[in-house]
Amino acid sequence: MLNHRHHIHVACTPDAAPEVLDNLALFFNQQAFLTYDLFSRHPQTASYSHRCIEKSDYVLLLITDSYGELNNTGVSQLHLSYAYARTKRKPLLVLIKVQPQSFVVPQKLSDFIKLVSQHATYIRYFDTQTDLSALLAKAYSDLKMNFPSVGWRRGDSNEEGELTPNSLPKSNTSSLPPPRPKATEAPKAPAPIPVSEEIEIELDKAITLQYTAHAYAEGNLSEVKMVAYVRWYTILEALLNTPMPFSRYSLHRCLNSIVSQTAEQGIKDSMPQVHAVSRCQVIAADLEKVQKTLLYANLITMLPTSMRQFREMWEMTDKAKALMQQKKII
User: Model's pTM, two decimal places?
Assistant: First the structure.
């Protein structure tokens, strides 16, 4: 048994093909714990899925032949699980079955697929001929790289092998705010970076940013992965136009906006049949790279605890503003 496993919640409908579910179980057998939506109309069905999603590291949405049975609100449990996973900002992997031309897709299912396609980043399509193990290997690897999570570790179990509270699958997000400092504690500002560690960056030097995007060609949607070359000057200029202070989410939106400006032409150059591009998302690893570089170059700094609420907030330093002003004068 591996020392490290993730908890993955699988949202699917009762009619999911047994061979597909078997493939999931076999692939994740040594890598993750799986929980599933309940298939009966039990009163606790929805709350059970919610609890599983909250504790999970990742959510796998399996869309096959139907939308699922409607509840008293007019939606299916599959839809409810998807919506709750998005509310909890859980990393989501979507598997969509490609239907033969003779199959008439129900309207509810068609509308749901369109909805998911507009918002989900990691979408993979499969049919009866697809090697699901190979598909899952690549998709799961991408998910772990862009959304790393601790998960369950064997070292957290006791001598009898029972799981301790700390060994339960852990989510990479939390709905609980960090504890407030005690009244007797003075708010602490982040420690300044030692001069010896401060780095310098050239504003005209370009950095590579990997991103994913949705490409539409002949009515079909596919996810593509591309690389953009962006100057540090462009990043700082965009940040200057961002309301201060800004969050990590705001920085991510800023980078997504930058790569979106050239994404369509770049994708069309390699995929001429593409007629539209949407949802450009810089991968988490490169977002982290940009944030750390700006920090260690003393171009951004975190606000003191007393000036922020429950999350990290950042602002540009005087050094960054001076560099940009000097660049504009030159």
Answer: 0.49
